[in-house]
User: Fold this.
Amino acid sequence: MTYLIPALILGGCGILAGVLLTIAAKVFYVKVDERIEKIGESLPQANCGACGYAGCADYAAAIVQKGAATNLCRPGGADAAAKIAAILGTAAAEVVPMTAVVHCSGDCNATQSAFLFDGVQSCKAVKRFYSGNGTCKYGCIGLGDCVSVCEHDAIKVVNGIAKVIPALCGACGQCASACPNQLISIKPLAKHIDVLCSSKDNGKATKLACKNGCIGCKMCEKKCPNGAITVTDFHASIDYDKCTNCGACMAACPVKVIHTCEA
Amino acid sequence: MKTMLVILLSAMLTDNFVLSKFMGICPFLGVSKKLDSAAGMGIAVTFVMICATLVTYPIHHGILVPNHLEYFDTVVFILIIALFVQLVENILKKCVPSLYSSLGVYLPLITTNCAVLGVTVLNIDNGYSFGQSIVNALGAGLGFMLALVIFSGVRKKLEYADIPETFKGVPATLIAASIVSVSFMGFSGLFN
Assistant:
């Protein structure tokens, strides 16, 4: 009896709670559109957030409920877009292949370290101390926060700076959000000319910190026939919608910071 | 009536669960970014506290004490709290989906929120009557909501404040929390 009564009381409480919750689950049942589930299955389940929604399930719900575009999944690419279109019964939307690019060329030959960092070996950690241990406060720290988040092994740290391998890149943007200096952007794969510097210092300060930096001379801006390249915050940046891969900026650049990054 | 008022106000202000007893800190820091989710969390916790007290008090005094099973308090109380949290989750998912998604993981975390278990256990330990227990639960819940709502306002100001690089983010939030706690010390000695 000494063991039976406690067991009965605890068991009774448990059963009562179970029955109550089952009834509540029936009463408050939320009906889910079955297309959401199907679309969720056809997505790669990387939950990378490149589409702008909080994970694959959220994106699937947004397509059905809010009419979000069907071609936003970067890791899934054309394949996923076609599957989603088939489920919805619409024509497949065009998918432009994208890739990530690191806008920094300040490798170990071009920059020095400002102090020795002995803490946790991560870019985010170093960034907390005087904005990083390199002479350039805007450049790649090189401890590979982007490498550790990449699910496609498409980014490597070479000679102190991160480099993307476009052939492997799924353009999910995980590396872009991991980079504490916001050096990584996602751009169309076909547009292969990039400015590899993001320094917001003026020309002189940039040159002191890094041999390879953009000095903001605006030569490229003048030479570009399409108005695709502009200098803001003392560094050039390319509008990939306007760029035609002509290479005029590359030829004009006196510090050779504009590179072709063809795979 | 006077004791009821004293219990209500002391649970809310002088013995505020978050700022004086450091219970339920995780939603205090986790859900206080926005005013509406802070208020929603406060209402959810208050609801769970009152419902849990409504059920745990009769169970303790009606079933556990006569059978000399007081040592079951913790297990039974946790079970009841989990039941109500699950219930709140179902209701919110159906009726207020925006609040459901903004509370995120902190909603199921009410289950292990020590403030909720703390209220039910303290009701028993302090020897409150049924009415006093409910008033205590209400005060604790309102105090929790008050702390969250005040702190969400402080954090909003903090977003635009010019703070030293090293303190940005979590350190600044924790320092702000300590200052809010200091302000609640002013209430101590309000009742004797």
Chain A has three domains: 1-30, 34-88, 98-260. Residues 42 and 79 of chain A are 9 Å apart (CA to CA). Chain A touches chain B at residues 5-6, 9-10, 13-14, 17, 20-21, 24-25, 28-30, 128, 130-131 (CB under 8 Å).
